[in-house]
Write a structure and sequence with these properties.
CATH architecture: Roll
Order of helices and strands: EHEEEEHEHEEE
Number of helices: 3
Keywords: Isomerase, Metal-binding
Protein name: Methylmalonyl-CoA epimerase
CATH superfamily: 2,3-Dihydroxybiphenyl 1,2-Dioxygenase, domain 1
Oligomer: single chain
Enzyme class: isomerase
Domain VOC: 5-140
Structural class: alpha+beta
CATH class: Alpha Beta
Helix content: 10-25%
Radius of gyration: 15 Å
Organism: Novosphingobium pokkalii
Largest sheet: 9 strands, mixed
Strand content: 35-45%
CATH topology: 2,3-Dihydroxybiphenyl 1,2-Dioxygenase, domain 1
Length: 145
């Protein structure tokens, strides 16, 4: 199994409009997607792209706001009211092969494989198995995300 590139960094935010404004006005980021709801995951999501240097592509940041009090992001924000880094997301060519490989390595997978914000299958690895970092594994997008 070969791990692909870092696709994005997930950042939990208490206010999507404020987060978008901060990334745009302070960091020079451009909005990739308008905010959209993902009720099955209990979140509102928007992607921004930071500017790259010397003509290189920037880094995608996934802004994540809770959709209601039962959202997993609401719990994160209760502990971190200003928001903060939530997860790292890496690409793989074959999500099911990656799931089997991580399982064989003794890594705990949190929940079933499901469709993520890029419209491709994803799963999460337990932070205690990944150096304290919640890690999202996603099948490489085939479209324009």
């Amino acid at each position: 199994m070969k791990l692909g590139r870092l696709n994005h960094v997930g950042v939990a935010v208490p206010s999507m409009p404020d987060a978008i404004a901060t990334y745009r006005d302070v960091m020079g980021a451009s909005l990739i997607t308008q905010p959209f709801d993902m009720p099955e995951q209990g979140v509102k999501v928007a992607f921004v792209n930071t500017p790259g240097q010397g003509g290189t592509e920037g880094t995608q940041i996934e802004l994540i706001e809770p959709l209601g009090e039962t959202s997993p992001i609401a719990g994160f924000l209760a502990k971190n009211p200003a928001g903060g880094q939530h997860h790292l997301c890496y690409e793989v060519a074959d999500i099911e092969a990656a799931r089997a490989w991580f399982t064989a390595q003794g890594k705990r997978i949190l929940g079933p494989t499901r469709i993520g914000a890029h419209g491709t299958p994803i799963f999460f690895l337990h932070p205690k198995d990944m150096l304290g970092q919640l890690t999202e594994i996603m099948e490489t997008p085939r479209g324009d995300h």
